[in-house]
Amino acid sequence: MADVQKKLIVVLGATGNQGGAVARRFLQDPQYAVRGLTRNVSSPAAQALRELGAEVVAAELDDVESLKKAFKGANLIFSVTQYWEPFFRPDCRAKAEELGITCRKYAYDVEVQQGKNIADAAATVVDTLVDNGFLVSTLSNARKCSKGKFQDLYHFDSKADVFPDYVVPKYPELAAKMSCIHTGFFTTSHNILPDSYFAKQSDGSFQMRFPCNPDKLIPQLDVNRDTGNFVYAVSQMPPGKAYMAGEYLSFRDWAAAWGRVTGATIEYKEVTIDEMVAETPDKACGLEVALMYSYSSDPGYDGGMELLTAEDIQKAGIDCPITTVEESLAKQDFSKFFSK
Predict the structure, then answer these.
(1) CA-to-CA distance for 287 and 17, rounded, in angstroms?
(2) What backbone phi and psi angles, to 5 degrees, belong to 313?
(3) Residue 3: pLDDT over 70
(4) Which of 24, 44, 143, 156 is the most interior residue, by most CB within 10 Å?
(5) CA-based Rg of the chain, rounded to a whole angstrom?
């Protein structure tokens, strides 16, 4: 059981990228007890977290009652929801076909409902939460920020439609204790989209190909190294603010950094949405991410919102280290891209 002398933070997705990073960071502070939530408490990741000192309990995002039980006694909650898990699952794709909707829309519906379940459960423990005790991972609302241009950038709106748009009107007391943490492009996204990041050319050089302005500044995040530090820093800030985690860097400069790290020759080429979809094996995935890159050009990945950054947190006197893109790339193994 959690030590009653400590503040208890409940971390959703504690065996995943974001949640795992947050759990590990708070475990470093003896002021906190960490309760990590996961579907499979017997997994190696769950066991590793337990060995670090966390309490690991089972909870289902589709089950509000299991979340209410898991949130009991929480002083802080870190919330993260998942679009891509139902998006790629074969059974979910079969269900989407049965319902006559795209797998993209189906994953949106799943994530929205799970987000609402988290909010509904968190509202039951609002009295035990500290002033800045509801820390939520989210993204900008593409539909609103683009003034209707992007109607179906589902994995953005599935987060924003709940955090903050569902929470604020329905649970004002919870919203008053909420901080919205937007996460930048993961610096490991090339593992999912290798042909778009590193298309090998006949002369041995590489080409990065996205439907995004090459010079647009875009937040880039080393999710495993920096999410924990960032959320930990945000927890020390006043509530009710919105943040962007990551280093702002253009894709042209991202490519140049990769070239310096690997010694390879690479250029950035802006392509159309249709071209990116055609070059992505999974066409539904290609469309969803192509829309994201296009949105990142205008109005921008952050939706043109004024979001606080690590630099702003630092100016407030709170330590908030951020790994640069080049530092993140230097720690990765790219040998497989050269052996093709």
Answers:
(1) 24
(2) -65, -40
(3) no
(4) 156
(5) 20
